[in-house]
Amino acid sequence: MTPGGEDAAQRLRAAARELAEIAHTLREASAHATAALADPRVAAAACRAPQAGWRAQRSLARAITDPAGLGWAPAGGVLGVLGAKVGGLAGAASLPVSIMVTSLRLRIAAVAHADPTLTEDPLVHRLIEAVGAGQADVVGALRTLVKDRGGKRALTAVSPVFSEILALRALLDRNPLNDQTAWLIATGMGAATADPLTGLSNRVIARLDRGRGAAVRAEPTGPEAARFCSEASLLGLLGDLIAIGTSGRALILTVRGPDDVERYVLLAPGMRMGTPDGASPADLLGAFSATVLDSGPYSRSLAKAIADHRIPAGADLALIGHSAGGAAVMSLSQDAALNARYRLTHVIAIGSPIDFKAPVNPATWVVSITNQHDIIPSLDGQGAGNCFAEQPGRYVVDYTDPTHLFPACHSLEQYAANVEHDLPEARAHIERQLAPYNGPVVERRLYQLYDDARRPAGFPFLTVASRVEPTPDGPVELPVCTSDAAALTAWFTVDAASAAAVLDDAVPVRAGRRSLVALDVRDHRESTLGPHHEVTLGVLIHDPWCPRPVGVWRDLRRPPQWRGAGLWTLATALSTPAAGAAHRNLWSEHAFTVPIHVRLDARAAAVTVGAREDRALTFSGPLGPSNRSRCGEPVLYSMLADATLRSVVHAQGPSRLHLAPRARLHVGDGDHPLADALRALGLDGARPFLCHRSPHQLLRRDAGAHVFPA
After folding, report:
1. How far apart are CA 87 and CA 679, in angstroms?
2. Has this prediction a pTM greater than 0.90?
3. Angle formed at CA 166 by CA 161 and CA 170, multiple of 5 degrees
4. Where are the domains of the chain?
5. What Gene3D superfamilies does the record tag this protein with (predicted)?
6. Does domain 467-708 have CATH number 3.40.50.720?
């Protein structure tokens, strides 16, 4: 823009500001007159002194309806809403509205000096004229613009004066519910409190976002960590924000400044893409509440992250945020408790609607960087056409670049490129102010943010006292817990003599001349041992201290803590080295690691143990119809270092019992303990007589207790 054009734009803004103040004063006078006219005490006085009272009533009514004065200008309260509705239907003119419309048109003209294409574009010019004149073809003009340019380019074309267009439309339509929002935008006296089109309250929507905020430590991915800066600077910090992306996470850095003092920087990204999910405070609803409310789940979750980072009291803290993250860090700067604990030195908001947010501490240096074609910063009602003075102590960088296209110009990558290449003076000034934070990054911690504290997985079943058990292969946390598992237990009958032959001293449970064998398959999707598959072969045995051929069936129905009968573990196959080592060290010496494939669903099962060329077993086929069943909690006996151990797999979850499964077990040629035991039991080609399946289980297993020797 030339110096002459800049002077003209400043004069237009000054005139717009003066007209807005005049219009606001006239509207206040209208509101006072309307309130007096609607006051029941005035009506009561008219009844007591009819002549003087009715004269006063007529004067008040004439003050807000006289075409030679304020025009049709009822404002405020129920009478004001009803009067505005009647005036809108009748097409009556209002002096305060007419003056404010002129102010808004001057604001548009001021923006056009900086961006002549705004008024040179015939379709955009037609839309602005239609809105400013209150014409009925506004929708038609907008439809023509969208049809010719497409949605993105149409929105980009009007984005510098988007707020002014919305305010004009709200002032001149026949909907009195959005008038207050239009006046807030036009006077710059506060953030828009309602949708400028419908009048629906923003705060009603924002109140749906009620979370108390929570932050959980997370680990960056390899590519993310590789992109992090080693030396803190403005561009380096923006690069870190770009690295974590809009994933509902925040980053806190500990930086050693040039004076060898450690300072802290909080980085808050923009809105996470996708529909609101009730989990992330950085979703669409969270972005909305961060803009409208002084404190929302997003800012509260950031406060939880700061508290977890253990920043020393009195330490210097800088906040940097993009889009919704910028609004959230500005809300955080309004937190008196945070300001009392730390010295909040800098707040940098990039592409964020923060015009009506101010930090508690006036010494906090606030930076607002906005692209005039980015609509997001104008969501609070103030855009490129703002004619009102900025808040003191605030450094505003409001610019335009050749990109223009929204939403591309809102991306942090585009903002960072603009700061680096197109805004050298602004970048240099901000870097000078951020000089105390320039230095090596000592520590970096990533946080996943949530609307509320996350319910622990498996609570309360898995919420038990834990301990770390040392083993030759490393420590193992006990009890081993699985918060998400699928399970299938296939029951077979085998010759009782064959079962006795593989058991040493244990006594198998017999049903006539047959004994019962279980093939237990578990898909541990979320476990403290990590995701893994487990396949266990066991023979049902009597209580090792007191075999009871008849009473065993009653014993099997007892809770596991009172049950003596259980499964004698012949072999256990595990799919990961960590799970295999834990089993060999804690429960059974007959555990081995081997590739396992498990697929369990409501209709069929497919389980393979061993590689293709060295298969131990295959169990596959349909499971048949099912009925609801109780969740089984097996008691397991196993051998470890010449001792017999007893352990219980505590389980919880829905279960189904398949009484006529058609799946079949095939034993491979592999040299595995599992395959050897299956061949010894004669189970090659066998079908189970029933299957017990659970699609989702919680599991808990502690170390085995010694039975022999006691």
Report:
1. 93
2. no
3. 150
4. 3-194, 214-381+390-450, 467-708
5. Acetoacetate decarboxylase-like, alpha/beta hydrolase
6. no
